[in-house]
## 1
Amino acid sequence: MDACARGAERVAAADDVFVVAHIDADGISAAAIAALTLDRLGKKRRVGFYPKFDGDAAGDVNSSPESLVWIVDLGSGYLSSIKRDGVLVTDHHVPERNWRKGQTQLDSFNAVVHVNPHEFGFDGSTEISGAGVTYLVSRAVDPANADLAYLAVIGACGDLQDSKDSGLVGINREILNDAVATGGIEVARGPRFFGRDTRPIRQFLQYSSDPAVPGLSGDGVACSRFLEELGVEERNSDGSRRSWKDLSPDEAERISGALLALLSADDAGKVFGENYDVPGRARGMGDAKEFATLLNSCGRYDDAETGLGICLGEPGAVEAAKENRAAHRRNIAGALDYVKKNGLVRTRRVVRYFDSGDAIRDTVVGIVAGMLLNDGNWDMPMIAFADSDGGKKVSARADRSLVSKGLDLSFVMNAAANHVGGDGGGHAVAAGATIPADAVERFLDAVEDIVLAQLI
Ligand code: C5P
Ligand code: ZN
């Protein structure tokens, strides 16, 4: 991509740089790639994290004293709020609609270099992440930065880009090849349930979902019996519980064979696929999806700096992140429980929704919405509301099967939010918005009209 070369020129020419990043796992990975790229060039840099590209972020970008602002995994949806020279955006969110393709070359060539897969006919929700785009620019700065590719794999997994095809596809595949070639990632085929590195093997099977394994999912006793029948010990000789990654190849093979026998061919294709090992890391960081969760556990709780610290190898960061992860797990479990116990989910014509008020943090309500979809509510988008400082935070999630029928939540959130005086954007499968607190019903009406039109 020529745009990557132009981005690299910007980086090379900068005196000092302000890196502006999203707070999720992809954003933190992207920030780490940008920071390491700059450190290797000996450039002075500072990093700021933002939950969304709102007025605060735009204000900080526009008033930053640095000669370059490098915005990663953010910004594309809000380009017109950037009013300064010396900006590089490496993002994969759907670009702002009225930002005409080519405008960067015409009106504001000096202002913004915009590197985004959507401008080149790629799908930013599956083929490359924000960390991936940032990595391509980093590699264009110096081919030796190929050793940062593993961070882009973690970013892509953090944005669930490996889920649709049970492995990474598109430009992510090329990035994966770099990560493997530089020893940052090893590809491991097998079941893709969450927790290969940290979950005891019984829970690894028990908490499987999307799709569920008949006779095992949700039934811990059955999982223990299953393991016993296969002659797989649940504990190591020192009494500690074994995870999937502790198993011998032969044990993993036996379990895989027995799982296959329980699954339809279609479901087997979803359960089995590629996993990405991150070799030489502490437990909890040895699997790309779990590494991404560790980063999310920091970023979604105002501690993205610790996530960045892990990626930069700062001492103490891993321990701090593990505390964040324990809190994140409690929070998510509590939030799911809260929604279910209180029967909050309502069904309208074409969407399901819930309003958690102030009971769920606005930064994790989207994760909860996604988990409720995984519980089997695949036929309608899930729209979640949470109280936030600027009004109501909205998170929308949908199954990819709806996207293949024409649903685009990024458009839905953007248009419905604008209709009620708010802001929104994101991806076709996962998007968000902020709207005035009293506009929920009108917003939902608009959401339904647009979803209906898309799914006709
Ligand atoms: O917060 P949540 O995880 O639901 O966000 C989903 C996606 O929507 C993110 O990629 C985020 O950048 C985007 N979003 C947005 N504008 C908002 C809120 C979220 O573009 N106001
Ligand atoms: Zn992203």
## 2
Amino acid sequence: MAHQSAGNPFQFIDVGRKAPSLKPIPDRKRDFVEIHDPYTQSEVTEQADRCLDCGNPYCEWQCPVHNYIPDWLQLAAEGNILAAAELCHQTNSLPEVCGRVCPQDRLCEGACTLNDGFGAVTIGFTEKYITDTAFAMGWKPDLSNVVPTGHTVAVIGAGPSGLACADVLVRNGVKPVVYDAHPEIGGLLTFGIPEFKLEKSVMARRRRLFSEMGVEFKLSTRVGEDVDFDQIQSSHDAVFMGMGVYQAIVGGFPGESLPGVCKALDYLVGNINHSLGFPQNPADYIDLKGKDVVVLGGGDTAMDCNRTAIRQSARTVTCVYRRDEAHMPGSRKEVANAREEGVKFLFNRQPVAIRGDDRVRGVALINTCMGPAETGGRQQAQPVPGTETVVAADVVIIAFGFEPSPPDWFADAGIDLDARRCVQLSTQRLPFQTSNPGVFAGGDMVRGADLVVTAIDEGRRAAMAILDYLDV
Ligand code: FAD
Ligand code: SF4
């Protein structure tokens, strides 16, 4: 659907890119709440109207769920928020989440034609505005035309892939029953990503909405421990698994087991459980007030640890990354946010040992330079001999990412793994079908640790394959 600019066709020249206003830095350094104020309708009209409506919208191609971006930008510019929300939900099960946490600079906004000199359209903030505003206006998905098929599908994992799968199934008359080990839905959206990026009320609202749509949740239920996989498979017509990856990658250098060294997700979840009031062993909450903290890693998890430590009033927070800034895997906006909040970055430094006696005292680092790229991969960091220095630290947080963590029961369930220990998909049959024909899988446990929006995409496409499997 091509559209005319709602107002001035040269809006992109006259009006620059403008994100919603940011909260003052002293508040940001203290509060576990989102750092941007919401857009107003007049700001959205002004910003969304900057869209050029390119004939071939690169933003749509670069968005993993292929959102109809120019079309909902126009609806938002016109103030037609309910129609915009309907359109957002045609391609995305959690648009309000993606608007908040997608690395837009690498995806839709990175591909925006205006990104080349004028500043990309603020696609993410507009997606968030559309969905939040529609919810505030009482919008709900209309399922009145859905005809129940009588089929039920078990979804293991209430993270973005599982929720997206359940969303598509229930909209097609198939009843999803979602099992999760946690007491709340969201997976890493709730038990991983901190509130300053995604407030927990967002997922609580989604839980209410999904429940009203007919999705059943069986929470605090770990499949393989609280209920057998066989029992689940035999009581449903198909199974979708979106169980994520949770094995923390270690550095493999001396000193990693010293008191004062912790794993990134353990640290973040301890803080989230503390904030949300979920029961946990008091030792699992790590308070960094007054500490010198070193975070090792350059991805989104490392940025979340940096910024959580700042909010806990750490004395200093230093982030060490072995490549240069241009090669950081994390979202640019999160690196900028961390820097603004007081995180110090040391690029081209690689940890070689954690130093200490009865506890951590520092991290030994060696300088690196950027070497050639591995075949089809990123440029590698090469150590520069004779450049070792030590950074003082009371606490070291290791944020090197995650490896697959398949449970033992996969073997009995006939679910094959690939060489990386990710779930192996069948190439002979339906998309996202595993070696057990009644079982489908998607998200991080298939692709390896990735993004919220790619997990949503796979959950949605797996649901379509399940509908084919059930002949719905
Ligand atoms: P998950 O979100 O991991 O959900 C899996 C669910 O399965 C969990 O709830 C788990 O409890 C459940 N489960 C596992 N085993 C069982 C079992 N046996 N029985 C019952 N339930 C089970 N991505 C972005 O796009 N932007 C970001 O800013 C971003 N920040 C991140 C920050 C952190 C700290 C981390 C760790 C990741 C971040 N990511 C980010 C990545 C993103 O969160 C993941 O790629 C995404 O959540 C994967 O979705 P998933 O559905 O595959 O798995
Ligand atoms: Fe951009 Fe993510 Fe929204 Fe797609 S889902 S339009 S990549 S913010």
## 3
Amino acid sequence: MENRRVLSGMRPTGKTHLGHIHGILENWRGLQDEYECFYFAADWHALTSEYKNTSVIKESLIEMFIDWLSVGIDPQRSTLFVQSWVKEHAELHLLLSMITPLGWLERNPTYKEQQEELGDKEVGTYGFLGYPVLQAADILMYKGNYVPVGKDQLPHLEITREIARRFNYLYREVFPLPEALLAEVPILMGIDGRKMSKSYNNAIYISDPEEVLEAKIGQMVTDPQRGYRKDPGDPEVCSVFSYHRIYTEPDLVREIDRECRRAGIGCRDCKNMLAKRLKEYLAPIKEKRNYYLNHRGEVEEIIRDGTERARGVARNTMGEVREAMEI
Ligand code: TRP
Ligand code: SF4
């Protein structure tokens, strides 16, 4: 039983978009059938980049849980909680920082990358360098065996394993070594053909009203070679088609593929079909979302309950940690 635990977190730094649902949340939802899952809001991690603009964290925190619930993360089966409400994360972070060699953090490939990406937010801080140590604390606290993450998080998971190994070696075998569970899904493009991200301003949000959704699909880049309706297109290089692959039934996808290549279908029709499909896909999600938006008290209670449960586990682990370290 102990080796069936899944743990993952997401930073509350803005609105949920289709990339989150497709790349992460659908994976989380599926794992609930097989594992005991802990899913949390990594609000302290959000603080490493948003420390000057902390309001975004508070504003997106409850909304993020509402979106999780709307896509089928089930509080009856999974423990949903807020990182900063379980203060033990800070203590474990501090203790693990004592045994983490600086070199591991400085060599972390995502460290330099993110520093460049987030340049204007000034992440040359101590807290940001320690980001992976805090993440290790999150994971090890619950003795998570599997961590569903995107490829970009693999270096962090490797550091977590190294820290766990070092702790177990220095003191006593307390932590299992967690493994990544990579979602085998293609990355969702933004409407401009780059990876979907709020910082690129190319995302489709759950909260987008239908007109906005339609307008965004209208702007999506298609095969750039297809200048006129009579020109045949190449679906392989078209963002709209990459969406059809995900959201449209396979028979219709094959038909679109064929018709695009012989100019039997125009991009406008193709986009209209996609808009219709996405609206159908989002309808039940939005319906649940509206419910929870109107029942925030219920959501807050779910998170309070989950945090209480998480705290119980965290306290136990911290007891073991202090005992192992003899402190
Ligand atoms: N770093 C993760 C991200 O940006 C968020 C995160 C924080 C996390 N702690 C975690 C993910 C623990 C998995 C496990 O996506
Ligand atoms: Fe893309 Fe569809 Fe236009 Fe082909 S018809 S280029 S798949 S939008």
